[in-house]
Amino acid sequence: MLRLKGQLEAEGYFVLYADALGYVNPAEPIDVAEFLMVLAGSFGEALQARLGTDIGYESYWARAYAFLAGTELKLQEVGINTGIDLKLQIKTASSFRSRLQQFLATRVGELTAEVDHFFEDGVKAVRVKHGDDTQVVFIFDALEQLRGNYQNWQSVIRSVDQLFSLHIERLRIPYVHVVYAGPPWLKFLLRAGPPVTMLPTVHLWNNDPDRSTFTPGQDAFRRLIDHRLPPPTLCACSAPMTRRPASSSIV
Q1: Which residues 6+ apart lie within 8 Å of 176 measured at CB?
Q2: Quick one: pLDDT band at residue 192, thresholds 50, 70, 90?
Q3: CA distance 125 to 117
Q4: SS3 assignment for 49-106
Q5: Sign of the dihedral through C-alpha 141, 89, 83, 155
Q6: Reported pTM
Q7: Confidence at residue 233, expressed as pLDDT on a 0 to 100 scale
Q8: Percent of the chain scored above 90 by pLDDT?
Q9: CA end-to-end span of the chain, whole Å?
């Protein structure tokens, strides 16, 4: 995804990037309302990090807090006094997230309109700085890591499937091209929806408690590095230089 970001920027796009794991709990199911909130919140933070905080663009978390503060959720009673508190509770507090999902269940349309308006304001801020023809791309990475645990993995998979099949129109953000990095199995579950591109990866470690080495994958990755890097050269004073193992190169 970071390589894609660089390629798009080289072609003249204004690209923002966010890691989903900074906003959602990968071990629990995700709801469309919760997802829209973290999508807008992460976009706003990425935009402010890129353009600065003096662009007249309010944090989404501040907007969301103002919207929810006067409702029956009673934010202050659960220790939420600012927009940042709201962001942290959405990621870490299962009980609050459940209440939030129930409250927003009948307000998804209203929330979608608010999120779309927030993105539109962000695009306007970008074009004030970079020109009216600037095309904005938002990469929302690491959704493939929403896997749950041995107890709830089925409900997590079902929630991701529903998010991209039943609510895909809500995830099409006006004026922004959004790239979601989703799990590979999603391609086989979606009957309709956005284009899905499979990006193959090399299997380097086994999925066991010790994360033992998968030798064929390690060998294949070393061959790949051999093709991309020039041959080793000799030091003037001692033995030939050696490459670091593949795992170090990845890190």
Answers
A1: 43, 119, 122, 123, 136, 137, 138
A2: low
A3: 12
A4: HHHCCCCCCCCHHHHHHHHHHCCCCCHHHHCCCCHHHHHHHHHHCHHHHHHHHHHHCC
A5: positive
A6: 0.79
A7: 57
A8: 53
A9: 15
HEC string of the chain equals CHHHHHHHHHCCCEEEEEEHHHCCCCCCCCCHHHHHHHHHHHHHHHHHHHHCCCCCCCCHHHHHHHHHHCCCCCHHHHCCCCHHHHHHHHHHCHHHHHHHHHHHCCCHHHHHHHHHHHHHHHHHHHHHHHCCCCCEEEEEECHHHCCCCCCCHHHHHHHHHHHHHCCHHHHCCCCEEEEECCCCCHHHHCCCCCCCCCCCCCCCECCCCCCCECHHHHHHHHHHHHHHCCCCCECCCCCECCCCCHHHHHC
Distance CA 114, CA 112 (A): 5
User: What b-and-e string marks burial along 37-73, b requiring 16 or more CB atoms within 10 Å of the CB?
Assistant: bbbbbbbbbbbbeebeeebebebbbebbbeebeeeeb
Structure tokens, 63: 């907007």
Residue 67: beta bridge partners? none
What's the alpha-carbon Rg for the chain, to the nearest Å? 22
- Output the six-digit token pair for 81: 């006094």
